[in-house]
Write a structure and sequence with these properties.
By secondary structure, this protein is of the alpha+beta class. Helices cover 28% and strands 24% of the residues. The protein is globular and about 90 Å long.
């Protein structure tokens, strides 16, 4: 029979000078082992902290031999006596730095193989190694701290909703496949061959049904799944705070979120946020910042250049404006230590072209006038250009022209973002804002039909309802996004609760009545039975934690993420399954033809 191990009586982050003289047992991992002949200093680590363990030079031979055999990340148990360190040996950088534990006994609970990387505060190993050995990567202090931060944020969120009379209700994970923008993950049914469940992209329809069921305040920390091609910083599975309320209007939802984030940021970070967040219309956000998720921690606002561009001799500007297009500018400020070289301006142009710009025009301001770039096309207009733009010596005026207003805004917005980063203009702290008055419906040029800008269950604003079929592109929805530091943190809307209005939106979005009934019949049938007005929102937990942790990737706040190839190197999934499992599901694998 295996002997019971020495179970800890205290954690590695708990001991202080007041504990001097106590006999304690610590369990943890060997973080460092410094061998000074017969004297050993062992830093023992668990998730609570690090304690220095000392094997004195008068220790018994078996204890000294055990200490000498210890390697990094051995899991051990230590029994010893707490003693104060000499004044000159106190470590102010350690919470336990006033004490050490004189070891009386050490047991190796589990040895450790050769490490693929060092367990440091922050792991600098390649991402593929970090994900393959994620169980080791998670031991690093940075990951430990971020997982703890995520726990505290989710805990604070739950506590807020519990005290504000919301019910936490789970919605199903195996659901009917419905079109929601991305591909569904499909789950074959063994019991019903040829039929499939889907994993939810969001609990959207179920939370609306809960409103019809009379649960007027619902929330859930919901797992969501989208079978998307690897791109950017997306994950196949992610977590969102899902919120829905009945008998509310837009301002009620916005006020609730403002109150929630004020409490969470104060409780977790001791940060005071403004009671109300700035509101910007979708049009103004695009026009001024070049995107619908602006980073407000720096300025560099964009402006209409038509007042002087139309009078220039630059055909790319004049012809664009004559055809109803847009010309916009921003002023890149003179910044110490930064030069607007031709090479750098070319890099900015490349950033603009990603979003559809044909080029990036520029003019430098020197000696009280404009020069270089396209300045020759503004001969005689120099004073007007400077008066309009407010540009000073050393500044550079950057301009984009495009027939499509949105592409013009997006292209110059990409330049703005690049400048904010490169020039060190982005301030610290947290800048929230609401983006409101989004288009409800957009035209899909590739597929040749109208589709929902967000989703088809959002309420059109009242003034557009009567005639929305005549010109769907002008219809604004009762939609709202919450933006934090240039990231879309949450998206929501007031929902349609009238069955006939819902059918009209389905028809505009290329879902005739029979198709809509087949795909969404359970929701439409539900609306026949006294559906209340309702609305909601869904902040992303992963993204919130990423921003608060000051990280550039959501992988840094997820315990077991997938890599950019949509795989998990640690457990090697997705993986093949046995033929027996496929047979039970009535599935067969069809190999793609090798086309040469």
């Amino acid at each position: 029979m295996e002997e019971a191990f020495m179970q800890r009586t205290v954690t590695c982050g708990a001991l202080r000078a007041a504990d001097e003289g106590k006999t304690v047992v610590l369990n943890g991992w060997v973080h460092r082992n410094r061998d000074h002949g017969a004297l050993h200093f062992i830093n023992l680590r668990d998730r609570y902290g690090i304690t220095q363990v000392v094997v004195d030079d008068d220790a018994a031979k078996d204890l000294e031999e055990t200490a000498s055999s210890l390697k990094l990340e051995y899991c051990i148990a230590v029994k010893g006596i707490v003693r104060k360190r000499p004044d000159e040996m106190i470590n102010p950088d350690m919470e336990t730095g006033e004490i050490e534990v004189k070891a009386e006994k050490i047991d190796v609970l589990s040895p450790c193989a050769v490490l693929p990387f060092m367990i440091e505060d922050e792991n600098s190993a390649r991402e593929d190694l970090r994900l393959k050995y994620r169980f080791l990567d998670l031991r690093c202090k940075g990951m430990q701290d971020r997982i703890r931060l995520r726990h505290e944020i989710v805990k604070a969120i739950r506590e807020y909703f519990y005290k504000t009379d919301f019910y936490e209700i789970e919605t199903p994970t195996l659901i009917k496949s419905t079109p929601e923008g991305a591909r569904d993950f499909l789950v074959p049914s063994r019991i019903y061959p040829g039929k499939f469940f889907a994993l939810p992209q969001s609990p959207q329809l179920y939370k609306q049904i809960l409103m019809v069921s009379g649960f007027d305040k619902y929330f859930q920390i919901a797992r969501c799944y989208r079978d998307e091609d690897p791109r950017g910083d997306r994950q196949l599975e992610f977590t969102q705070l899902d919120v829905e309320m009945s008998f509310v209007k837009r301002d009620d939802v916005l006020a609730l979120m403002e109150d929630l984030f004020n409490e969470v940021f104060k409780k977790v970070l001791d940060v005071d946020l403004p009671a109300h967040f700035r509101r910007i219309t979708y049009h103004d956000a695009m026009n001024t910042y070049g995107c619908d998720k602006p980073d407000l921690r720096f300025g560099l606002e964009m402006h209409d250049a038509s007042s002087f561009a139309a009078r220039s001799t630059f055909k790319a500007f004049t012809e664009t404006l004559e055809a109803g297009g847009s010309v916009k500018y921003l002023v890149a400020p003179k910044t110490e230590g930064h030069d607007y070289t031709r090479k750098y301006l070319s890099e900015l142009e490349s950033a603009a072209k990603i979003y559809g710009a044909h080029g990036l025009a520029w003019m430098k301001v020197e000696n009280g006038t404009i020069s270089g770039g396209v300045s020759k096309f503004f001969a005689g207009l120099e004073k007007d250009v400077l008066a309009e733009t407010g540009a000073k010596d050393g500044d550079v005026i950057l301009l984009v022209a495009h027939q499509d207003w949105k592409k013009c805004c997006n292209s110059l917005g990409a330049v703005r973002s690049r400048l904010g980063s490169d020039l060190g203009l982005i301030g610290k702290g947290y800048e929230f804002c609401w983006i409101i008055d989004f288009p409800l419906i957009e035209y899909n040029e590739e597929e040749g039909h109208w589709e929902a800008a967000h989703h088809m269950f959002s309420m059109p604003q009242a003034e557009y309802i009567e005639n929305m079929e005549k010109d769907p592109g002008v219809v604004k929805g009762d939609l709202y996004d919450l933006v934090l530091n240039g990231y879309e943190l949450a998206s929501g809307s007031i929902r349609i609760h009238d069955i006939e209005l819902q059918k009209r939106v389905f028809r505009i979005c290329n879902y005739p009545d029979d198709v809509a009934q087949e795909r969404f019949g359970f929701l439409l049938d539900c609306f026949k039975y006294g559906a209340p007005p309702h609305g909601g929102i869904a902040p992303g937990i992963d993204r919130l934690c990423m921003i608060v942790a000051n990280q550039a990737s959501i992988k840094e706040v997820i315990a077991f993420p997938k890599n950019t190839a949509a795989m998990s190197p640690m457990d090697d999934c997705p993986a093949a399954v046995e033929q027996k499992q496929l047979d039970e599901l009535h599935l067969s694998i069809v190999e793609k033809e090798d086309r040469k």
